[in-house]
Specification:
Layout lengths: L2 H9 L5 H9 L1 E5 L4 H4 L20 H11 L3 E7 L25 H12 L2 E6 L14 H15 L5 E3 L17 H11 L4 E3 L7 E2 L14 E3 L32 H4 L5 E3 L2 E6 L15 H11 L5 E5 L10 H17 L9 E8 L2 E19 L9 E8 L4 H4 E5 L6 E21 L9 E2 L1
Length: 445
């Protein structure tokens, strides 16, 4: 295939409707809750007594209020972590809430609270199960699918089903083979609107770390060698080669120098996840991260063609720690105040096209304005295309009038300026794009 034709194909790799809706969710919560709250562990052993799980003051409405104060739009609950303890009364195991003192279907309580508060609801189900007698045998995938079907059919519409790839050795020394194609087929049949998160797709993938660190340039259009469960949308690239070494933590996975060797490209964007505290489960001696760190992670993720999945672990009593609640509200207040006054509507907008892949979008005000940040979005329903751009204030000297240099845009790029800029004209200069840029209305704050 010719190079030019391949780049055009790459520009036309498109998201599904469920992926577009996921991108619009932008910021949502993980809630890690299991027996680990009572053993002070991060990974349970699977032999915990069900009687220790006793959230005497379980309050999912308090959770939802806290998430809304931060501006979040959804919640993903760890219905089962690696310890195998199920937060719902599963028919297929005794290691679940039906044998705990509370007897409460926690998944139902949380999903019902999300509906009341207008939040989307999703579930995490760990493929690794340190309690199940079937783990490490061919029968385990049947067991897992039975539990997955309980979650897919008992709790209303799900916006996300979240899997990791943790795969500990079974007691018999055998490594369990997870049947992800079967899991994916079951989800597509019973919850067709849910995005599926996994290291290898099909819908969203891991950004490569659990510290909220994002890439300088984040592409949702990536080689199929990275996301083997995703739909391939192009023919092979123009050059023979291999990408078998590629993995999510790699810093540069969607750039031209990589995709030209791919056997075919997919649309599979990255989710950025981290915990509000050092641990994923609640430990009383830990403090929430600083407002500055959380806000910077929000800007880099939501504002870097990703979504932000922030974990908040409940205390053993079933409520969020008030320190976390306060930090969430501070974060929401900071986000709302930063992006409260969009002045782009006061500008006259003109365009200059230089080629099929380069253009200027010029905003002109009738008097100088102060600019702190600019938000740019592509219409990714047509594909992700922009590779590089600049923001320039009015001036003839390009050495001093460039106020921001950027790479990819995608769903959203938040450009925070190093210092406020006063000007009566702002130009978005698309310096490189894989096809004609499709830029949505620019926001200026």
């Amino acid at each position: 295939m010719g190079f030019r034709r391949f780049i055009r194909q790459a520009a036309d790799v498109k998201p599904s409707r469920r992926q577009l809706e996921w991108f619009d969710t932008e910021f949502y919560a993980f809630v890690h809750f299991t027996v680990n709250q009572y053993t002070n562990r991060e990974w349970g052993l699977g032999n915990e007594d069900e009687a220790i799980f006793d959230p005497v003051d379980l309050d999912p409405d308090q959770w939802c209020d806290a998430l809304l104060s931060a501006g979040m739009k959804g919640l993903i609950l760890t219905a089962k972590h690696h310890d195998g303890f199920c937060l719902w009364p599963s028919k297929y195991t005794e290691h679940c809430v039906k044998n705990s003192p509370c007897k409460v279907d926690v998944v139902k309580e949380v999903s019902d609270a999300c509906r009341r508060h207008g939040l989307k609801f999703g579930v995490y189900l760990s493929p690794w199960d340190r309690n199940s007698k079937y783990y490490g045998t061919p029968a385990y995938n049947d067991y897992f699918c039975n539990q997955l079907e309980e979650l897919l059919t008992g709790y209303g519409d799900l916006f996300c089903v979240w899997f990791d790839n943790a795969c500990g050795e079974a007691p018999n020394g055998i490594k369990q083979e997870y049947d992800f194609p079967r899991y994916i087929e079951l989800i597509r049949r019973l919850q067709p609107n849910a995005v599926i998160f996994n290291d290898y797709g099909p819908d969203t993938r891991w950004v490569g770390n659990e510290a909220g660190v994002t890439r300088h340039a984040e592409w949702a259009v990536v080689p199929s060698e990275l996301c083997k469960w995703s739909e391939v949308q192009t023919q092979a690239g123009p050059f023979e080669g291999r990408l078998s070494y590629m993995y999510n933590p790699d810093p540069d996975i969607g750039s031209l120098q990589n995709i030209i060797y791919s056997k075919g490209l997919v649309f599979c964007p990255a989710e950025t996840n981290m915990s509000i505290r050092p641990g994923w489960f609640y430990h009383p001696n830990e403090e929430p991260h600083s407002l500055d760190r959380l806000f910077k992670t929000y800007l880099a993720s939501v504002g870097g063609n990703s979504c932000f999945n922030l974990n908040i672990p409940p205390m053993p009593n079933g409520r969020f720690d008030e320190r976390d609640v306060a930090r969430l509200k501070e974060l929401g207040d900071k986000i709302r105040s930063t992006f409260a006054n969009d002045i782009a509507g006061d500008a006259v907008i003109t365009r200059r096209t230089f080629s099929d892949t380069q253009e200027d979008i010029i905003l002109t005000w009738d008097k100088p304005v102060t600019i702190n940040s600019v938000v740019i979005k592509e219409d990714i329903s047509k594909g992700q295309r922009v590779e590089n751009f600049q923001l320039r204030q009015r001036g003839d000297d390009v050495r001093v009038n460039v106020i921001y240099n950027g790479t990819t845009i995608g769903h959203k790029k938040i450009c925070m300026l190093d210092k406020p800029c006063q000007t009566d004209q702002l130009t978005l200069n698309i310096t490189s794009s894989r096809a004609e840029p499709c830029i949505l209305p620019i926001e200026v704050y």
